[in-house]
Amino acid sequence: MIELTPKNIQLHARAGNKEEAIREAGRLLVELGCIDPGYIESMLAREQQANTFLGNGIAIPHGLQKDRELIHRTGVAVVQVPLGVEWNPGQVVHVIIGIAAKSDEHIEVLAALTDVLDNDSMAARLAQTSSAAEIILGLTARQQAGAVVEELAGADFIDVFVAGKAGLHARPATHFAELANTFASTIQVRFKDKAANGKSMASLLKLGVHGGATIRLLASGPDAPEALRALAAAVADGLGENEETEAAIIPAAHWEPGGEIPSLEGVSGAPGVGIGPVFHYGVERIETSEESRGADVESATLRHALADAAAELQAIQADVEQRSGKGQAAIFRAHLALLNDAELLDEVYLKIDSGKSAAWSWQQAIERRVAEFRQIENERLAERAADWNDVGRRVLRLLVGVKNEGPVLPSAPSILVAEDLAPSDTARLDPELILAICTAGGGPTAHTAIIARSLDIPAIVGLGAAVHDIPAGTVCIADGAAGRLYTAPRTDDLESARKFQQTLAERNDEANASRFAPALMLDGHRVEVVANIGKLSEAAAAVEAGAEGVGLMRTEFLFLDRDEPASEDEQTEIYCGMIRALNGLPLILRTLDIGGDKLASYITLPKEENPFLGVRGIRLCLQQPDLFLPQLRAIYRAALTGPVRIMFPMISTLEDLRAAKELAETVRAQVGAPPVEIGIMIEVPSSVIMAPELAREVDFFSIGTNDLTQYALAMDRLHPTLGKNVDGLHPAVLRLIDMTVRAAKAAGKWVGVCGGIAGEPLGAALLTGLGVEELSMSLPSVPAVKAHLRKLRFTEAQDMARLALACATAAEVRNLGR
């Protein structure tokens, strides 16, 4: 939303005629720094070409499009003429809204005028009011409420599916808003009966969009089509959330007490066991005064506090990125976005201009937002109230000059107990001193829990108010994996828990220390453990993690988030870089797998009722050879420098496989490359049923259990309520895997798995028992899975696999690992 403050408004003006009124609006725009004085003449010239009278006493003069170079920045100026001015014969105007439109952000203000135009009493109030605030609210109230019903007039739009379980929470909303702000067009996002400014992260959050929802993206302006394509592709690609989703696959073991112990039950926030005395951490409310020292002084104070807070957040972001990676540091990028939220600042400055102090105005605006977010039904989005609270307290502390609020952190190793912890508080915790975090509130998807996991601090959230009743200094056992705080452990319990701690530490150290050793089982059977990657830098990271190659290179990530496809030369360079980084280890390149939940902005596909059953994967490649052939040439050119395998995605028929192989062979001959192994993804039931025929025509299979599970169970794995039932260890899926392996072995071909269950210890063991020879997984899973397999006999894995095939439910299968 463009800035609209009392400085944009002139009350009780007088104008003898329309020209004087327009010049007055233009003069105000010049004072605001929006336009060159020459643009006023353009506004007058425009009036000769078109009538800018809207009705109900409102006119919107603006300049000619050819004179946009005279605009310094987009803005509006509101001139109120209570006595009225004749605009055209029979048309009297009381409110003149002068527009300097460098882009189309002003449309948000114009959209609000539809209410005024249809509301005689509101128009009359705006014409006579002595309050700039009332005019501002009249022109912006619908955006602030987040409940726009009408769509942007004449806007282009597209409906998109929000993948993942979390929905549009802080980090993806930040990602969306940052991308939206790179376009000149006005961007609006609609969900149910609400709409939000697509360039405001906070406005997006208030929509309460959950995972699996469909939202409408609207754009109006000079680059609307480009904006919609880029934003739709970004939403389909997860808005930067893939890293976190893949990182938390492996379940953690928890401590089992020897008998009944008094305890409090919460929710697991981060695995691990902490043993030590309780330290209560509290934050007191900062008191503020409404009394103002003058609007200019208070505004300056707020600007300085915002600048200092931004510097603090940037420092925290850099520190967290160094310690825990970009994924966790993105939380504080979201905090910076909240700090600069236009709607928030508009509200605060409005209160300051009405005679309130900066601290009081800021506190009121923040507390209103915290209350709003706590009422959102989506649990994960409701937890973002903690982010607003965190940002709010940071600025408030600077505004009132509080250096240290609340108790200091413990100076000796302790279990930290709190009502809740702000993410920035969690990020600055010292893992050497904080043995565990236990909060009365919060949830497992809150940023506090995410950061605790990245710092390897056990955490339990949602313990309830009873956690505050534990006397300070009480020695407790906090089991993060079990989500349980044992409040009165006996001496033997403490000893048992410490032994368990040592066991966990030894397991982690052992797994990391031996990550380069092969996954050789106790009876000599070897399983190849490789990595799923999506970019060049991850090839070297895969080797460092202990992977024995790359079982899945998702080449589509070279095609997404860009305006044109990756060229043949660019792809060749990247593939060759991966070959060099792997230094002889195998590299499987999956050809372009776009469609379904992954779209590229430059690929135009007809609207499909169910894109997961439509043109995706190999089907799209065969229909668009201008994308497919350059990629095949790049792969074969790379094959001249080192070992490469090709894998075709979404093969559902023998005809598709043969067509793809024919094109590949033609390209290979043109390039003069040696033959390479060609395999296919087994992702749909038809490819399992046809596995005997398919196996005769390929060198290997790689089973994509994520897609195979959803197609086998007829459940969308991204569905908000059904998604929890889409378990790759369901007996139906395991039986399909068993059929696939048997067909491949009969033809003398090997089988790998590159779906999520390959990265779980139990899943890895069952797949191995079924005869899968290669397991491909996300990088963090590699050391632990290799270590787990080394502790098993192949015969044990086979026995467990037979039991799993005989199970009736996924729960029964998972109980086999307990």
UniProtKB/TrEMBL annotation:
It is found in: Cytoplasm. One of its GO terms (molecular function) is kinase activity. Residues 2-143 form the PTS EIIA type-2 domain. It catalyses: L-histidyl-[protein] + phosphoenolpyruvate = N(pros)-phospho-L-histidyl-[protein] + pyruvate. Its cofactor is Mg(2+). The keyword Membrane does not apply. Keywords: Cytoplasm, Kinase, Magnesium, Metal-binding, Phosphoprotein, Phosphotransferase system, Sugar transport, Transferase, Transport. Its EC number is 2.7.3.9. One of its GO terms (biological process) is phosphoenolpyruvate-dependent sugar phosphotransferase system. Coiled coil: none annotated. GO terms for cellular component: cytoplasm. Residues 155-242 form the HPr domain. It is an enzyme of class 2 (transferase). InterPro entries: HPr-like (IPR000032), HPr-like_sf (IPR035895), PEP-util_enz_mobile_dom (IPR008279), PEP-utilizing_PTS_enzyme (IPR050499), PEP_util_AS (IPR018274), PEP_util_C (IPR000121), PEP_util_CS (IPR023151), Phosphohistidine_dom_sf (IPR036637). Belongs to the PEP-utilizing enzyme family. This is phosphoenolpyruvate--protein phosphotransferase. It comes from Terrimicrobium sacchariphilum. The lineage of its organism: Bacteria, Pseudomonadati, Verrucomicrobiota, Terrimicrobiia, Terrimicrobiales.
